[in-house]
What we know:
There is one protein chain. This protein is of the alpha/beta class and 370 residues long. The protein has two domains: 3-105 and 362-367, Enolase-like, domain 1, CATH 3.30.390; 111-347, TIM Barrel (Alpha-Beta Barrel), CATH 3.20.20.120. It has 13 helices and twelve strands. It has helices at 57-64, 72-85, 90-104, 108-111, 131-143, 158-172, 198-208, 225-234, 248-256, 272-285, 298-311, 328-331, 361-364; strands spanning 3-19, 28-40, 45-49, 119-124, 148-152, 177-181, 215-217, 239-241, 262-263, 289-290, 316-320, 346-347. Strands 4, 5, 6, 7, 8, 9, 10, 11 and 12 form a nine-stranded mixed β-sheet that branches. The longest helix has 15 residues, at 90-104.
Amino acid sequence: MRIVSIETRSYRHPFDPPFRAAWDPVPRASQDATLVIVTADDGTAGYASGGDGLPDRELLERLLRGVDPRDNSSVRRTCETVDFHGGRPWAVEVACWDLAGRAAGMPVWQLLGGDGGSLAAYASTGELAGPQERASRAVALRDRGLRALKIRFHHPDWRDDVRVVEAVREAVGDEMEIMVDANQGWRMPGDLAPPWDLATACECAAALEPLRIHWLEEPLPTADVDGYAALVASADVPIAAGEMVRQEHEARDLLTRGGIAVIQCDVLFCGGIGGCRRIAGLARELGRSWSPHTWSNGYGLVANLHAACALSNHGYVEVPYDPPAWSAGRRDWMLPFVLEIERDGTIAPPPGPGLGVEPDLDALERWRVA
């Protein structure tokens, strides 16, 4: 089996009303996404999307034509050279996993050696909400079977964010795990707001300790590895980070030098599925865990879900879900179905070989822009 072509199709899906992401000062009236189609010489195709900013399609096709898509080492090493010089190419690597799974008649999680196809979901909330509103939404999530949720920080004063966590903990008691995302690891284009310093991160961690949070995520810039080490040494809450790292060495540094408890690199952003397999293995050896970031689109969720079901030693996987602002339907507009959380709070990859998704290209045409 050899790669003969790589095709990309770009889409823009409108949001009405716009989505007001906590980490983005600009309301989102639409979402851009690119579907990658990798075709082999026997006509089998693999599909993926997420982590947009893909390099030139013709470059990727020229470098990968003739490569066996099942040879992950060759595909990944080629993508690493492209990533250094341009946009993230990892949707191509993920599409090759989809193609390999289709050829083998196996889901990707099984190709990766996994022995089960589901994980407990944590509802990853996306917008800011006041204490009572967020508590009310948390109760609704609990009542539909979820066991965990993640609360975004981004009020002008982080103490107001802590009050939101207090209200949620009071409302759900110990029936749900609560993750907290400070979103200080990176900034949206043009957002010049200063990040937290170590003193602020330590003060916030201390304030959250009595609330029994599952982890505090990205309380410092990703590159501040020494700051993470100092925070881990002083804080009594687990620290998570690394959702936007591009290079595997960044993830390794956060684990080995920074001492974080949970590394969160995304298969569409860092190293593909093969690269995250190595990071997950390192985390396991260190007694830590890999639990991937999944906020891109429905395809990104599916790809990370397959990888997490096979490779993660963490009990929960991130599922972007914050109704009514961010519904499963909004998230999964690229998919021919909506990926639902089960009533017991678990989520499984779609059944079938590869990623388990056969895109409806005709239905997506109405949003095609290139």
